[in-house]
Specification:
The chain is of the alpha/beta class and 451 residues long. The chain is built from 14 helices and 17 strands. The strands form two sheets. Strands 1, 2, 3, 4, 5, 14, 15, 16 and 17 form a nine-stranded mixed β-sheet that branches. It is globular and about 70 Å long. The chain starts with a strand and ends in an 18-residue tail after the last strand. The structure holds (4S)-2,6-dioxohexahydropyrimidine-4-carboxylic acid (DOR) and zinc ion (2 copies). One zinc ion (ZN) binds next to loops.
Length: 451
């Protein structure tokens, strides 16, 4: 019996480096990686013309919206953006309408995504009010919990240490990571009042509110809680040198801590806000050149665990609100992440093994996504083919995301995802999404037995 698909004339990523080989796919999984003469017969053969095959990206941080926020993004447009960007699995954030915060709301999102997604989707849940519900949420298949310290989203008051500790304990027992948006609510609220009373209303005032101090306070507080209990804490989008220092110190103390950074925090400084204005507002916001340097240096030393897009789509009207205090924070990132990172590889600032570790291997490990995040026999065939030499400009007007704006608009990039495969099926070809809605699978946590 022939296998479904064989690539030939490819360079395949392996932990030992790129090898010239072929790759056979059968029933959605990688069947064999070998020299071409050793590959089985296939129903379809594809000549990859010497291009590189990498594991598809696993984006640990995407706001795919839909439901009552479908005017910003829905599971089709968001996962089409992912496919276009070489992302084969996106983990969806819970700050939706309704908020994902119990088994019922999670089930509803899964049901909707199942019919629309063109890449795989896993889900975060916010914490429920009643911690009993956590067991059901994990049983339903959430891969992690998400806590916003900047505002109350879900059932827990983010300033209540004891409530948080109880929830973290419960997550620890179930071996489910807790991802945290680390900006301190009280710090934000006090500064915001101060600014508004002084009649300040511009991006500088916004940056004053969303200070590094708001980030460090929140991270510090979480580390203190982590010392009291055993759970896995994952810091989302670490943006400042000072914040990162606390995260790294916690790691050195032996706490179970991981962290992610975003391409925008690595590549754009707050000076950009002068040019892009409110379009480039996101939380946490862009920081200084010194912060950027420190993020890169930690990245090179291997102290950062993952890269994440923090794809956070809004409408242009929401981004251009009259008052800065009404502007919705966030930018789309699924379509720009990989081209931006490949450009950095071409510039010699990142290696392919670093890229794969940060965008596939580590996210799979952090969120316990079995059989994904690597290219090995038996792994799911979630792959991206990249042309390292292709140069082009980012054009946000052509995004699959409904959010057709980007601070990277017009940037020249070198390195392009040219084919994306999800569960062995071609979903993007030469920038065009060719999959039917529903090809993407819902990835549920396959956990230890539930108590
Ligand atoms: O910039 C952001 N956008 N930060 C968040 O914490 C939320 C996100 C969103 O959902 O738009
Ligand atoms: Zn966040
Ligand atoms: Zn986010």
């Amino acid at each position: 019996m022939p296998v479904d698909l064989v690539f030939h004339n490819a360079k395949i990523y392996t932990p030992e480096g790129l090898v010239e080989a072929g790759l056979a796919i059968d029933e959605g999984r990688i069947f064999k990686i070998a020299k071409e003469t050793n590959l089985p017969q296939a129903s379809t053969k594809m000549d990859l013309k010497g291009h590189i095959v990498l594991p598809g990206l696993i984006d640990p941080h995407a706001h795919l919206r839909d439901q009552q926020l479908a005017y910003k993004e829905d599971f089709f447009s968001g996962t089409a953006a992912a496919a276009a960007g070489g992302v084969t699995l996106a983990i969806d954030m819970p700050n939706n309408k309704p908020v994902t915060m119990d088994a019922q709301s999670l089930r509803e999102r899964m049901k909707l995504a199942e019919t629309k997604a063109v890449v795989n989707v896993a889900f975060y849940s916010a914490f429920p009010e009643n911690l009993e519900e956590m067991r059901k949420i994990v049983k339903e298949g959430a891969v992690a919990f998400k806590l916003f310290l900047s505002q109350k989203i879900g059932g827990l008051d983010p300033v209540d240490d004891e409530a948080l500790l109880r929830a973290f304990n419960e997550a620890g027992i179930r071996r489910v990571p807790v991802a945290v948006h680390a900006e301190d609510k009280e710090t934000l609220e006090n500064k915001r009042k101060e600014m508004q009373q002084a009649g300040r209303d511009n991006v500088e005032a916004y940056l004053t509110v969303h200070s590094t101090n708001a980030e460090t306070r929140a991270i510090q507080r979480m580390v203190q809680l982590a010392e009291k209990s055993h759970f896995h804490i994952h810091f989302c989008h670490v943006s400042s040198a000072a914040g990162l220092d606390i995260v790294l110190a916690a790691k050195r103390m032996g706490l179970t801590v991981t962290c992610e950074v975003t391409p925008h925090h690595l590549l754009l400084s707050s000076k950009r806000l002068k040019r892009h204005g409110t379009m480039a507002i996101m939380n946490p916001p862009l920081r200084t050149e010194e912060d950027i340097k420190e993020l890169w240096s930690a990245l090179k030393q291997g102290s950062i665990d993952a890269l994440a897009s923090d794809h956070a789509p809004h409408t242009i009207e929401e981004k251009e609100a009259k008052s800065v205090w009404d502007v919705k924070p966030g930018i789309p990132g699924l379509e720009t992440m990989l081209p931006l990172l490949l450009t950095q590889v071409n510039k010699g600032r990142l290696t392919i093994p670093d890229l794969v570790r940060l965008t596939s291997e580590n996210p799979a490990e952090i969120f316990h996504l079995k059989g994904r995040g690597g290219l090995g026999e038996g792994y799911y065939a979630d792959l991206v083919v990249v042309d390292m030499r292709r140069e082009y400009r980012i054009e946000s007007s052509r995004f699959y995301s409904k959010a057709k704006y980007s601070p990277f608009d017009g940037w020249k990039v070198k390195g392009k995802p040219i084919k994306t495969f999800v569960n062995g099926q071609l979903v993007m070809d030469e920038g065009e999404v060719v999959a039917k809605p529903g090809v993407g699978k819902i990835i549920r946590r396959e956990g230890e037995p539930q108590k």
